Amino acid sequence: MAHHTYCPFACTADISSTEQLFPICNSSLISIFSLFFVPSNSSTKQFSSMVDVPTKMQYVNLGSTGLKVSRICAGCMGYGDPRWTEWAIQEKYAIELIGEIYKRGINFFDTANCYSNGQSEIILGKAIKQLNMSRGRIVIATKAALAVPDDMSFNPAPRDDPNFVNRFGTSRKHLFDAVDASLKRLDLDYIDLYQIHRFDDDIPLEETMRALHDIVQSGKVRYIGASSMPAWKFQKANQIAEKNGWTKFVAMQNLYNLIYREEEHEMMPYCMDAGVAVIPWSPLAAGTLTRKREVKTSRTGNAKWFEETFMKTREQKDNDMIVDEVLAIAEKRGVSAAQVALAWNLSKPYVTAPIVGITKIKHLDDLIEGLDLELTKEEIEALEKNYAPREGMPFTF
Ligand SMILES: NC(=O)c1ccc[n+]([C@@H]2O[C@H](COP(=O)([O-])OP(=O)(O)OC[C@H]3O[C@@H](n4cnc5c(N)ncnc54)[C@H](OP(=O)(O)O)[C@@H]3O)[C@@H](O)[C@H]2O)c1
């Protein structure tokens, strides 16, 4: 895939001083700290100025659109409230980190209305304002379809609850409400990429596609995309849009990594054929592909839940063998396992920009450092040889 590399002409930012601001940024301390931290508006003032730092960042078109996105998309699911997910980092650190991500040339940010029940969007919006991020430079993606409760409970889908019955899914009513709520939380005039988090089997595809088209026509959204769903349904939705002259999906956000490759059967060939961008979520398998099993972080409990819920295989050893292979290649090459897992994802011609969850500055630098890592044919074969096909992940609410 053709890409462009960003070579900033000058660097006046003091990276070492930036690093000093993150000395306690190991995950367990963040979690402990975040429990007691009360955000303040002046929190980012002490932070280093918004001057670009040298970066290997590359840019590609989002599928067949003219929109240029960085080859790494910054996933914002981990920015929010530890009551929603225990490994979430809170506002102050999250805003600082978003600034560092931006300075290193990542222009593509993915959030969702349901992440920390709106807090992730609020934090991203605050970062854009407080750090004076150029709106023309960044590409903001968010999603709708899951419920956003008023408290920090995990997103339910209680179809018969009078409080929620119209507050999730892909109906015209809910999508119109949801886009306005996201814009308000993000404090933006428009969203670059608005995605359907899941398709709602209760709602006719025509209704959803027409509603999305009308939202684009209203100017609130520039492009539309979708997340995990059966390939036939995604293709049908785009056919409905095409037949009616409505806006089509230009991007698919699906689960794709070395321990979940079911998308290679149908979705990836369709996207490649149709010129739809693929922006995989959890390319590092929520961290599982980045470390030995015995290593514990604040996220390993969540990563295990992800694995069991979405990437379950018949026998645990199937995934273990893949993790071992990643670690072996990383050791041999003298790079991190995360770099190997990301390089594998990026080696696929249909992958546009994997959405990585960055909650630590050392992870950010590690990923960017690994951007030019090219795996050999033999290494790719070794990484793939132990994959055991498994049931696809559940696509329903
Ligand atoms: N559409 C959907 O349904 C859906 C679902 C889930 C996620 N997403 C999107 O995908 C994004 C990424 O998801 P994810 O966080 O599960 O993805 P991921 O990139 O697969 O996992 C990130 C985790 O990997 C670990 N890690 C270890 N070394 C790393 C390194 N060098 N760089 C980065 N991470 C490293 C970190 O955990 P430790 O701290 O434990 O080391 C980190 O939390 C989300 O923020 C969201 O935007 C979408």
From TrEMBL:
Domain NADP-dependent oxidoreductase: 71-385
GO molecular function, one term: oxidoreductase activity
GO cellular component: cytosol
CDD domains documented for this protein: AKR_EcYajO-like
SUPFAM superfamilies: NAD(P)-linked oxidoreductase
UniProt keyword annotations, A-Z: Oxidoreductase
Protein name from the UniProt record: NADP-dependent oxidoreductase domain-containing protein
Species whose genome carries this gene: Absidia glauca (Pin mould)
The encoding gene: ABSGL_06509.1 scaffold 8356
